[in-house]
């Protein structure tokens, strides 16, 4: 087991380097460059007499370190990353790590709550569908979840805002941001309730789409397990149906579903651009999206590297979880 | 002078020639005495990247910094003349090469430190420092030979060549407090970008990333103190949501999209609480024809293209008539604009005969014009994300098809779009420019800017070059405008662009504010106040 762990951990390093190298090349070779964009994105700000003068763009490139050959730039980047220094953003010259840390808490809150809700709702319905397989309720549930799945989240978000956000209908929920003005200085309970109140609409949008997949998965896994011999044995022993389903069947059916949890690690880190933009939530999705549009290389590289690292760790965890939970699997 | 602006995010506005006082005297709103504790909640559709006035490039930052920072002079909203701010007075040498500014002596930064000539020198040096991310500003100050500090309260700029906008540039220099910086510090990373500190009527209070930026009145302000106690900038990225927040009373001021202006803000309740204002600001949209391409090298072909586009219909259908068709590169309400020039009307028949003059005819009867066996076919570049550009392109495509011209639409992401244009890899494209009050056509239209500058369509005209050069050193506005009106005629004749529209800026303001005036360059919320009865 220890040998296996060491081996897997060592494999992470070249994989990660490979991922970063490919990302680096893709973003550097993609058309458009940050120096030009910075001058042209000026919007209503004025530009000098020579405007797009090549000389000025060269100066800015040099300032950003983009004048060096690509291999040199990549090696310099790798060197810095080994000391956990992701550099500074081209956009505002703030350390990339600060920008990420500033946005990470809210993204984790959103994702944690919505993923928890997906499991909380989808798994019981999946079990119900499996135990009442092909019944009308099973079919209706499936239909319902797939209907939800097919609704585009931006459309649902706008509808929710229109109906519950105090337009011309009910004024129940706040429609932007994640807390009220000055909530930080109020008692913790107040802050918590205020925060949850703000999160209800965005979390709803992030959650409903995930229900279909997980409930179908639970249903399929359950159906497979229910046909197993040990379930028949359990029934033969005279156990109650409840005990059979929950103690014997569900536990085994949940195995693959729990290992799915390993993928949660990177999922927690990524944000949803659409939901964040509609609800004005300063999360990771917006940060990454804007970085790509403005060719903010250090930020793009940092986000991809961290996501890649989390995915690799997640995969490792999922393999370990398998071994821990299923004695038939041995890692060596 | 000019800057690229995506059509998408652009608020095109017109200034009114006369000062317009917006009628706010409605029943139920008595104008009482101003109170000094009201807040203005303003809308920002995106967050500025930094509030450092020397390294920032976006319009959001300059909107906010206008309340915090001041310069030696500014353009007065009412008279459009340059008036002293931090300077007490200035002298301009007869040869227009030296500008001497005498500073006011009672000015303090928000932290109490006195403002002196050292701050100006420091700011000037930072702008010219290649290690500072200020390339966008550096150009303005390239013709300055030296900034001389005569004493703590007198500075003198020495120019190499006379230039009619020099006073505006050297007097409008962004100034940062030099005492907050140490010698070996990286200026780009200075905390001042997140916590600006100036001399202006409002001081910075806090910036909550992605949520809000709050300014509070500077109680020690040297000039006339504003009535507003705070100005809050709420960052709401979706404009539908922002309008809803406005209706709920969570915003006092926001820009409206044309569809919101026409369809979503007409209820009685809305009009009881909000005034809708529209005004023009200097900018225009256009279609640029790449004059290096044989298709568009002849002015008759370009004129024909303009005549084939039904601009009247587009203005009516797509922009709800909230704008006007323009014919040239100057701001429509500035004296440089020649109003005797009338836009080419939609005239397919005339266009076809013009194209025939150039040699384009449908000889092989396939429905497409051809010349020397080559069909008239080209690519129209638009920036993804601009809905207007997309609709415009579709209409243009349809209009051209009827005249036997094949146009393919190519949609590119902004970064790629800009790159293609800069490398002159396009046939035609659509974009918008925003202008300043006094414009210098050099950057866009001088032949020297055709290779590497903003003259990306490749416009070269000897007379135009001469006019541009003469006008740059012409200090009499009357004479300069006469030159520019001639320039306008050349541009109209040559049609390097099909000039489209200057559209109106549309805003909604809460009715509790008094003294809401529309100036030629927009609104000035720092002058607003609310009265006792209305805030209760």
Shape of chain B: globular
The low-confidence runs of chain B, each spanning 5 or more residues with pLDDT under 50, are: 1-30
Distance between the termini of chain B: 45 Å
Determine the mean pLDDT of chain A.
84
Main beta sheet of chain A: none
Q: Greatest interface and its residue counts?
A: A-B, 62 and 68 residues
Task: State the share of residues found in helices of chain A, binned by percent.
Answer: over 70%
pLDDT averaged residue by residue of chain B:
88
- Number of helical runs of chain B? 16
For the secondary structure, the number of strands of chain B is 28
| Unreliable runs of chain A | 41-51
Strand and helix layout:
The complex is a heterodimer of chains A (332) and B (536).
Chain A (H helix, E strand, L loop, with lengths): L1 H28 L4 H7 L13 H10 L6 H12 L14 H36 L4 H15 L2 H12 L23 H39 L2 H8 L4 H20 L3 H6 L3 H6 L5 H10 L3 H29 L7
Helix pairs in contact in A: 1-14, 2-3, 5-6, 5-8, 6-8, 7-8, 8-10, 9-10, 10-14, 13-14
Chain B lengths: L2 E3 L14 E2 L12 E2 L3 E6 L14 H10 L4 E3 L6 E3 L2 E6 L5 E6 L13 H12 L6 H4 L5 E8 L2 E6 L6 H6 L30 E7 L3 E6 L12 E6 L3 H10 L4 E3 L2 H7 L3 H6 E7 L2 E7 L9 H10 L2 H7 L5 E3 L22 H11 L11 E2 L2 E2 L1 E7 L3 H16 L3 E7 L1 H9 L5 E7 L7 H4 L16 H11 L4 H18 L2 E3 L1 E10 L2 E2 L2 E3 L2 E2 L5 E3 H4 L1
Parallel strand pairs in B: 4-13, 20-21, 20-22
Antiparallel strand pairs in B: 1-22, 2-26, 3-28, 5-6, 7-8, 8-10, 9-10, 11-12, 12-13, 14-24, 15-24, 16-22, 16-23, 17-24, 18-19, 25-28, 26-27
Helix pairs in contact in B: 8-10, 14-15
